[in-house]
Amino acid sequence: MKRAPFFIPRSGRMEVPEIDDEHKEIVEALDQVRQHIDEGQEANLAKTREVGNSLVSHFRSEERLMQDYHYLHLPQHIIHHDQSLGMIYRILGNCENLGRVEIEDLRSLYRVLIDDIFSADMHFSAYLLDIGAAGRGA
Asked: pTM (2 decimals)?
């Protein structure tokens, strides 16, 4: 069964190249695992774990950038990331326990990323616009 690919809507672009590029790489990695499932192959648990690790690394990268720009809402953003990490670890733990990855696991990881973009990252994007730093590679 062919499923629609994962993607980041245009409205989810932050205009911060390093963050937008990381978002794109994570979604592309999720989509590679999805393609394995669509083709009837067993989804690669190690590749899914890599996606989880990419999300963790991405969150830390965002936090460093926010710190560099003295983002006032960084403490709240870190809390949001910590909550998101709990979800990521739960999803990956379930995959490990079952010994397989299901499409719903990928969808859940995708929702974690999309939720981070729209409920937290876009506020940072607006802050960068306000201080005139967005679109310049922040």
From this structure: 0.89
